[in-house]
Amino acid sequence: MARTSILSRSTHNCYLYDATTGDELLLDGCCTNVLIVDIHASVTLSQRFTNTSSTAVSSAVYTFGLMSGSAVCEFEMIKPDGTRVEGVVKEREEASREYEQAIKAGKTASLGQQETTDVFSIAVGNILPSETVEIHLRYLQLLMDDEKKDQVKFIFPRTYAQRYGQAPTDNSSNATTAHQPFKMNVIVQQSGVIKSISCPSAHPIQLELGFPDGFEPPSEDRSHFASVTLTDTSGFLTQDVTLVVSATDLDSPRCFMERHPSLNHETIAMALTFVPRFTLPDIKGEMEYVFVVDRSGSMRGERIRLVREALVVLLRGLPTSGTTFNIISFGTNATKLWDTSRQYSQTTLEEATNHVDVMQADYGGTEIASALSLAYSSLPKPLGRPVAVILLTDGSAWDVSTCVSHTQTALSTLPHSAPDSFIRVFTVGIGDGASSDTCDSIARAGNGMAVYVKQGEAIAGKCARVVRAARSPQVVNIVVSWMGHGVDSGAEDGILAQDGDQEGIEGNDDDFEMVTNIRNEAESDVPANVAPLSLFNIDDDDQQATGPPPAPDPRLPPPPTIQQAPLLLTNIFPGTRTQVYAVIRTPQSEIDSEGERLPKSVKIRGVVSTTGTPVELDVPVSRLLRPLKSVDNLDSGDGASSSLHHFEQLFLHILAAKALITDRQDGKHAFPTSIADEIQTNDELREAYLKKEIVRLGTTYGLTSKHTSFVAVD
Question: Which H or E run contains 564?
Answer without folding.
Answer: strand 562-565
